[in-house]
Amino acid sequence: MESKRLEGKLIAAEIQTRIEKTVREILTRGDSRPRLVSIQTSEDPSAVWYVGQQEKLAAKLGIDFQRISPQEVLTEKALIEKVQSLSADPKVHGLFISMPLPEGFDADKVLLAMDSRKDVEGIHPASLGLIMLRKGKLIPPTAYAAFSLIKSTEIMLRGKKAVIIGQSAIVGRPLQLLLGEARVTTLVCNTGTSEEDIKKLVGMADIVIGCAGKPGMIKGEWIKKGAVVIDVGTTEVEGKLVGDIEFEAASLKAAFITPVPGGVGPLTVTMLMKNLITAYEWQNK
Is residue 153 part of a domain? Predict the structure, then answer.
């Protein structure tokens, strides 16, 4: 069977159109323009790239954007004070803090300094707690993107079986909650799960999500025929981005599959901007 490629850019374009419309409506009312501030905590290439993508998309959508450079937050104290200051500023509607933080910084202290209503990355403890209570407003963008791609297949989710390989706080765990809310029976594999068990679980799953960051660890031959396969992994190997799932082999068995690159990635920054609009509306009730 030939699988259908799930490409994030198609859904992203639809959501971006809606965001642009919302921004125009906000400005027509005479209200302030939505504003995102991104704190870049290091010169790590992935952090520089991701913040750059936010700046580019914000300009396209009519959103005010400000980048805080690593030189402005060289110490944990300086970072916490900056987060507190921006949280208290009513003209700032969304805050992004690039992770991981520099060595020696306490991520919990930094996150707790943030107003959770401005947490566009959805990683504040309060944001994750609301998801668990089925009241989540700000969903981690990568998990949000993966879930949206699953929903775009229009398959009946209720009663399906899913396996998630990887349990990070920004992908695996929130995805487990989102799928559970859709009445999908979901199992999560972690570093304690043997390859043999992963193989068995993948083979019985209607939905397979790879988010471990280990290129090619999920073999295409393990995939159940007709499954939905979502690859969140993006690891650079010999100058190319490679996913957690063997794409070519999995494509022969899956009904739907995301390519790497081009699948989840293009949708992630758009979901962050969608969170910004949600945060704006939450703060301006």
Answer: yes
Amino acid of residue 57: L
> Is residue 48 classed as helix, strand or coil in its secondary structure?
helix
Q: Which domain holds residue 93?
A: 32-120
Judgement on whether residues 107 and 187 belong to the same structural domain of the protein: no
pLDDT band at 46 (very low <50, low <70, confident <90, very high): confident
CATH number of domain containing 93: 3.40.50.10860
Element (H, E) at 230: strand 228-231
Per DSSP, helices labelled H in 65-218 are 76-88, 107-112, 125-132, 141-152, 172-181, 195-204
Phi-psi region at 252: left, alpha or beta (left = phi > 0; alpha = psi -120 to 50): alpha
What CA–CA distance (Å, rounded) separates 128 from 133?
A: 9
Residue 156 within a domain: yes
Q: Where are the beta strands (DSSP E) in 128-184?
A: 161-165
pLDDT in tens, 79-123: 999 999 999 999 999 999 999 999 999 999 999 999 999 999 999
Q: Tell me the pLDDT tens digit for each residue of 57-75.
A: 999 999 999 999 999 999 9
Cα distance between residue 119 and residue 95, in whole Å: 6
Pairing assessment for the beta strands 235-237 and 240-242 based on DSSP bridges: antiparallel
Specify the number of domains making up the chain. 2
pLDDT in tens, 151-207: 999 999 999 999 999 999 899 999 999 999 999 999 999 999 999 999 999 999 999
Q: Cα separation of 169 and 111, whole Å?
A: 13
For residue 2, pLDDT over 90 is answered with no
What is the DSSP track for 107-123? HHHHHHTS-GGGBTTS-
Angle, helices 8-28 vs 265-283, to 10°: value is 20
User: Which of 120, 152, 182 represents a domain boundary (last residue)?
Assistant: 120
Looking at the structure, tell me whether residues 97 and 147 fall in a common domain: no
What is the predicted pLDDT for the residue at 236? 85
